[in-house]
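Attaching the record inline, Q. Sequence:
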Amino acid sequence: MDIDVVILWVNGADPAWLEEKKKYTPPAAADSNSPNRYRDWGLLPYWFRSIDRFMPWVRKVHLVTWGHVPAFLNCKAPKLNVVKHTDFIPAEYLPTFSSHAIEMNIHRIPDLSEHFVYFNDDTFLLRPMSESDFFRNGLPCTYGREEPWIFTHPVGIWSHAAANDLGIINRHFSKREAVSHHREKFYSREYRWKDNLRTWVLNRLYPDHFSGFRNLHAPAAYLKKTFEAVWEAEPELLQSTCRDRFRKAENVNQWVCLWWQVASGDFSPCVIDNLVNSVTEETIDALCSCIESQSHTYICLNDPEQPVDFAYLSRRLRDSFEKLLPERSQFEINYENETV
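Structure, as predicted:
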């Protein structure tokens, strides 16, 4: 089975990109237009090193960009496919500065395998992984546990997207039928007994509709056909999402495809070990310790909204990743010269 990896990346300091973005920036773009969303922590080389070292079986890595490429990147690497937005996103949606629009079109990437894993560029692999960690019996491995959505803080754009995603799932699937047809996946030995107990309680309380799913902010295993199915089921909503050049509360995101796989039973139950935290002066020691000790499978390094000592924090993170992944990968320039 061929398995590819897709990652989205933007160079938020590129003058040409900034000029293009400025032309289309609305007066108010909510939290989708924060400069923090586009700044580069200098960690992308370590993302490629982690793929090279911990997932050497990957067929192809598709790096999706606006058009720029990282200075360190070896564009001639056999496993690398640099994909511009214009290569796969329909022209009517371009230019776009919305991750939602990009995500909902990734199944159109040329030469993308049917089975692929989608990464955000703030999530890093810390341990070796096998093909069966992502796909079993041809089905994507997913944490299919139901978990009610509870909002206890200001509702951001991503929360609106999650609510919209859930609405689509409940519009197209009967929870009662899904659980009945795929009971062994909703009640699985892969999950903790507490998770299965929670699922049982939620099924008794809300038998007809899903109340929410666990938000892991982790790499997701997908089938291309899932994206095609969602586009066929909700063309107007997805077209509307893609026409918005910046993220809006009315949009959906790639989680709708992840949860579609769960509701349809097209998944293999698994537990995903991912640490998620914002990078601040208060969290940096624990984050660096996690990287160096490999105490989790993944680590997601969220860019904080509040002001931080960016230079200091980015240097600390780079130092920790350098300890874990000191050798250059095939995706970096001068890789062959340095490994002779």
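The first strand starts at residue 3 and ends at 8. The first helix runs from residue 15 to 24.

More tomorrow.
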